[in-house]
Write a structure and sequence with these properties.
This protein is of the alpha+beta class and about 280 residues long. It contains twelve helices and 14 strands. The strands form four sheets. It has a five-stranded antiparallel β-sheet. The protein has a four-stranded antiparallel β-sheet with strand order 11-12-13-14, with helices on both faces.
Length: about 280
């Protein structure tokens, strides 16, 4: 196995181009090292980008916040711009493992791994993030929901590197929510994880982006529910619960696994969504 340890973005992109299609990128290593230790992954070559400092920057811009792909969960927790513009991203970062894991786990790594149980990715979906990818061929940006393609698969080409996540500024009356359900209160892999960004004018929802993880083969946007919520009035809590139940039945395909059952995931997701909707509007 060949390992290229690089210090600049240019060197990283050159190494990825030269390595060919079977290369793996090593950032914080919280997933890749576990896979290699267990024998699930045997990469032909690795490009280690951990020391590429230019990928750690977090910048507030007129459009919002640009977060370098190597920004760790700890750095998200400590950054004022992230707290201001993406409070639920901070909340999600706080749920990622123990301190040692948060010091190494990166926002780019969460996206690159594309696990359906990733804690940060549902927040990025809800906040309408864009993923910036760079190669020696050029730079492109893609909506996060288009970037994640399936179970641990995404739209990154083998010679491309995730270099940043771009978050737009938030509307002034937006309500945001994050909820993770695991086996225990901390340091657990999610059974269900939900993130939402809902804008209302008091009694009416005018825009919604609600995302869920661990309920399908990838992180998903609950588009049907979001469309149904816009401009809708609810007579009572039961009407909200009924709508969430119908939309969950139509939109998600959870599986039984070692952490939970599909039935439990569906049950919990319906109740989390109903609580989010109740909090976003005044029930008439």
């Amino acid at each position: 196995m060949k390992v290229a340890s690089v210090r600049t973005l240019r060197d990283a992109l050159s190494a990825l181009r030269d390595a060919g299609p079977n290369v793996r990128i090593l950032a914080g290593g919280t997933d890749l090292m576990v896979e290699m230790e267990s024998g699930r992954t045997r990469p032909e070559s690795i490009v280690d980008v951990w020391r590429v400092l230019e990928l750690r920057a977090i910048r507030e811009t007129q459009e919002g916040v640009t977060i370098g792909a190597l920004a760790s969960c700890t750095e998200l927790l400590e950054n004022k711009a992230v707290s201001l513009h993406a409070d639920i991203l901070v909340e999600a970062a706080r749920t990622v493992g123990a301190v040692q894991i948060r010091n190494r786990a990166t926002i780019g790594g969460n996206l690159g791994t594309s696990s359906p149980a990733a804690d940060l990715n549902p927040v990025l979906f809800a906040l309408g993030a864009r993923v910036r990818l760079e190669s020696l061929r050029g730079t492109r940006e893609i909506a996060v929901e288009s970037f994640v393609k399936g179970y641990r698969t995404n739209d990154r080409a083998s010679d491309e590197l995730i270099t940043a996540v771009v978050l737009p500024r938030r509307p002034p009356h937006e309500k945001r929510a994050f909820k993770k359900v695991g086996t225990r209160r901390a340091q657990s892999i999610s059974k269900v994880v939900v993130a939402a960004a809902v804008e209302s004018n008091g009694s009416d929802i005018v825009r919604a982006r609600i995302s869920a993880g661990s309920v399908a083969d990838r992180t998903i946007l609950l588009d049907g529910l979001c469309r149904e919520l816009v401009g809708r009035r609810f007579a009572d809590d039961a009407a909200i619960m009924d709508l969430c139940r119908v939309q969950v039945d139509a939109s998600v395909a959870p599986r039984d696994d070692v952490r939970s059952t599909a039935r439990y995931r569906r049950f919990v997701l319906i109740r989390i969504l109903a609580q989010i909707v109740r909090d976003a509007v005044r029930v008439k």
